[in-house]
Amino acid sequence: MSHASGELQSARRVGIDPHLSIRHYDPEADLMLLHFGPQHPSTHGVFRMDLHLDGEIIVKATPFVGYLHRAVEKLCEKLTYVQQTPIVDKNDYVAPMTNEQALNMAFEKLLNVEVPRRAKWMRTLLAELQRIASHLLWLGTFTLDLGGALGGGSTLFIHCFREREMILDLFEDLTGSRFHYNTHTIGGNRHDLPAGFGEKAKKALAVIEARMPEYVDMSLGNGIFVARTKGVGVLDGDLALELGITGPVLRASGIDHDLRRDAPYGAYDELDVKVAVESGGDCLARAKVRFAEITESIRLCRALIDGMPEGPINGYKPIRQATMVKVTGGQVYVGIETPRGELGTFVIGGGDTPTSPYRLKIRSPSLHALSAIPYIMPGATVSDAVAILGSLDPIMGEVDR
Known about the structure:
The structure is a single chain. By secondary structure, the protein is α+β, with helices and mostly antiparallel strands. 46% of the residues lie in helices and 11% in strands. It contains 16 helices and eight strands. The strands form three sheets. It has a three-stranded antiparallel beta sheet with strand order 1-2-3. It has a three-stranded antiparallel beta sheet with strand order 6-7-8. Strands 4-5 form a two-stranded antiparallel sheet. Strand 2 and strand 3 form a beta hairpin. Helix 4 packs antiparallel against helix 5, helix 7 runs antiparallel to helix 12 and helix 12 runs parallel beside helix 15. The longest helix is centred in the first third of the chain and has 30 residues. The chain is globular.
C-alpha cells in the first residue's frame, strides 16, 4: 500500500477528508475563510493555518509553514563541522541540548569517533534535564493557550517558569549560558560538570517532583481543562505512523515507541527507561504522556547523577582551528529522542570542501506533528484549534529551519 493511499484510508476511518475541495462542499453553506496566524499568539507569531469554517465548525484546515526559514541546512553546508553546533542551537530553541547532541552524534558516526563513557552519561543527563525543562514550558504555555476559565492560564505558566529556571541555573553553571549552550562537540563535551553540580541538580529535581501534584491539580484535576482537551484533536495511531509522527504525540495515540529504549544511544543502554503510553490520542492523552515523562526524567536524572563515571569527557583530538576536522566521504543518519520526538540528522561527507558537509538534512519531529492538522482539526471548533495546536507542541524554529 502506498503512503498516500494509507493516509486516505486512515482519514476515512475517522470520516474526515483532509483534501476536501471547498468548491464541492455544501453549496448552501455560508463558509468563511479565517487566516489563523501568523500574528496570533497561539501560532507563535510565525505559523499560519487557513481554517474554512461552517459557522463555528472547521471543515478544512491547511497549515502554512516557512515564516521562520533561515536556510539552516544550507548554512551548515557552508560552515565547517566545528562551527555548526551554535547554529542548530536555534532550531528547537526550547531544547537546544538535544539539537547539539543529534548533530555531533552524526559527525562522530561519520568520523568513526568513540565518545568516552563519562561524556555519554553527561549527554544523557543533560538531555533528560532538558526534557523536563521543555515539558514544563509546554505545560505553562498550553494553559495560556487554553486561558479563559483557567484564570487566563497565567498561574500555572508562572509556576512552570519558576521551576524551569532551576534547570537553566544548572545549565548556566555548566556552560555559562542559559539558553544556547554550545557545549556538545565532536567526540564528547566541551565542559565538565562543575563541583557540586550533582547535589544542586538533586535539590532542583526534589523541588520539581514535590510540586508535580500541584501541576496535576491545576490541569488534569481541573474540570475545565479536561473538558477542553478530552476527545479533542483525536489522532489515530495508524495515521500517526503514516505521517511519520514520533515522540509524545505518537505515544499518546497508543504506539509504544521511544528511541531511548528501542534504539538506545548515550547511556540509555545502561538505564531502564519506562516509556509512557496513552491510548486516547486526544489533547488530554498528549498532556498525560508529558506529565509521565517529567516524572520518569526525574528518576533517570537521579540514576545518572548517582552513577556518573569518572574519566575524560572527549575522545577526539583537541581542535585549535575551525578547519581541523575533515571528512572525505561517507553518509550517515542518526536519530535521537528529543522532547518532541525523533530528531534526525542526515549527513553526506566529502565534496569540494572536506571541512564542510556536502549535504546536511535535519528531520524535525515538529514538522511531522504539524502534518496531522488537516486530519484532526476538521469537525472541531475555532477554540478547539488553539488546544489542538498547543497539544502538538511544535517549535517553529525546527519546523522551518
